[in-house]
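Reopening this ticket.

The earlier resolution said the output was attached, but the attachment link was broken on my side. Pasting everything inline this time so it's all in one place.
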Amino acid sequence: MIGRLAALGTLVLLCGLAGAAEPRARDLGIPFDGAPGPLNAITDVAGVTVGETTLIAGTDPSHLVRTGVTAILPRGAASATLPTFAGTFSLNGNGEMTGTAWIEESGMLEGPVLITNTHSVGVVRDAAIAWRIRAGTHDASGYWWSLPVVAETWDGYLNDVNGFHVKPEHVFAALDGAHGGAVGEGNVGGGTGMICHEFKCGTGTSSRRVAVGAATYTVGVLVQANYGVRETLRIAGVPVGESLREHRVYTDPALGRDTGSIIIVVATDAPLLPHQLKRVARRAALGLARNGSYAGNGSGDLFIAFSTANAEAVRDQTLNAAQFVGNDAIDPLFRGTVEATEEAIVNALVAARDLHGRDGHYAIAIPHEALRELLRKYQRLKGP
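Inline output:
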């Protein structure tokens, strides 16, 4: 596989190997509510794996490649054949997430969740079907029915989005290379060319451990953040965007509006039914709002939540039995989702690095020391 990718003349970074060592928001002293899991990542939910293919290439200024693919496998390799209960929510629908009609109808997520750029949804979707066929289930032809979930945000300011540089090989690499452990953040995977609040942004993740009665569950979130305007950015309650006005990304006023998007994937090991997971997915919007989003008209804010519990109940037997958290006990999971979403977005901002893109476009990362100084001024900085 590596040989085939190298032949494309593309620098390819797989499975979180790039970006995992970048500083995270807590490393800068940014305070957050709640208790994270050991990795503070979506992979704190047992069984969840993540793969990332990062594509950075090109010498022609008009055709620089700054894109990639992120794959989230709810049950690791078993995701090809064993579904999860799931629910989706569209806060603002100027975007795409395929496969959601069947999730709405069935309550099932059948396969992985993949995130890429806007104009690569088709090739990623087709490759996801091919990956499941290769798993070889149900009949001699392989997996004979599949409606993959593929979501997108637009990276065309930095990336040659009309060059269709994401290929099936890149999707297979993300899927086959998915693993537990640390997850790459910032300029990696589908988040490679993304911009958030007019700072370089991209992929981010976080998790929370929450008590529900006598049990403790994990909520993990992964975001591909590409939304927002500078003025509204808030971090830990501090009006960061109002103070850090320099280094604006866009010279075109039309691009300076809230025309970006965000994809939010919520995973949990708490036993929840599909309608409850839709409720969880809605709560991701509140974490997004904490950082200053107002879900503008041009924004695609699409969320999906799934539960890795109830494995036997999703095998589609004639009669199934599922456990679920009672509605009166679900609030800690709502709160954990809000907290983990807020932190995942800030992690994406903090981990991102300055990036040159097509046609001389340039996105600068949020300056760490200036951010720390603002938090100190508002008495929100943890540590020295």
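Reporter confirms the inline version is readable. Residues 1-9, 15-20 have pLDDT under 50 and may be disordered. The two ends are 47 Å apart (CA to CA).
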